[in-house]
Amino acid sequence: MKAIGYTHCHPVSHPEALLDLVLPEPAAPQGRELLVEVRAVSVNPVDAKQRAAADPGGRPRLLGFDAAGVVRAAGPDCRLFRPGDAVYYAGAVNRPGSNAELHLVDERIVGPKPASLSFAEAAAMPLTTITAYEALFERLRMPRGESRPGEAVLILGGGGGVASIAIQLARQLTGLTVLATASRPETRDWCLSLGAHHVLDHAGDLPAQVKALGVRVPHVFAIAGTERHWDAICRLLAPFGLACVIDAAAGLDVQKLRPISGGLVFEGMFTRALHRTPDMEEQHRLLAEVAGLIDTGRVRHTMTQHLGRIDAANLKRGHALVESGTMRGKAVLEGF
């Protein structure tokens, strides 16, 4: 089968940063595994970070943590999907990735592809959807449905892929005021178009901007620039509030949360698959729920760039885009 991988860590500009490969097809699915014919994939920061820092020592390693495709075969214990079903999912960091024509994945972390989306559009969604959903409703314990006048959630780093779905989920499923941050006109407009009530300038004084709006912020979802903004987060967070972090946090002074009895939580969307937790199937459930939101028009896909077919040259372009730090939404590749 055709696949794209790497054998050593290189900068994205290196000619062997990613390689076109021909590999044996995966073994027949076992247990609750699905064998998926991959139709489209997207590029995430984790792809670029792994390529740059996780050296496979000369053996081909396949990346890719987002995919949409069609089930070719199902393991003997599968009960959620059958051959011919269209699916979307984010895979697992400890297994071969989806940048290949065929991919094995546990059905418990797979969702039914939104019927209203193309395979390319669907491939933009899974990893960011799982990350945003788990962060908002499991880590930050945000209330669903009920109106919360004067209470807000602040989403730091509003232009990226995770924020692009987090803004929509917060606006559609909660009664909170949705605040996002951006510094460029195009990302500000993007956040507003997705449903943010207000967009703050993360290059400015965030606590002052929050105070001017007259809202309490018991929930902060820090997607990017957490260390740079940590002091501001601790000053604007409401008493007993929670901050959820997904980027590097080694330099955070958590003692700054003590005066407000605040809390710091982490979101890692691979945790369930990596540790095979008893509630793994929650990722299937949430992907199915969001597929329904998409098909009823309440949430829209976040694909902003189609980079062409799935090959090493185009994947390198995708890696360069996410490494630039200026991505808006998600970049997708389709077909081999």
Automatic annotation (TrEMBL):
Classification via SUPFAM superfamilies? GroES-like, NAD(P)-binding Rossmann-fold domains
Keywords associated with the record: Metal-binding, NADP, Oxidoreductase, Zinc
Q: Which Gene3D superfamilies match?
A: Medium-chain alcohol dehydrogenases, catalytic domain, NAD(P)-binding Rossmann-like Domain
SMART domains with a match to the protein in the record: PKS_ER (SM00829)
Q: Which GO terms describe its molecular function?
A: oxidoreductase activity; zinc ion binding
Q: Which protein family is named in the record?
A: Belongs to the zinc-containing alcohol dehydrogenase family. Quinone oxidoreductase subfamily.
Q: What is this protein called?
A: Zinc-type alcohol dehydrogenase-like protein
Native species: Roseicella aquatilis
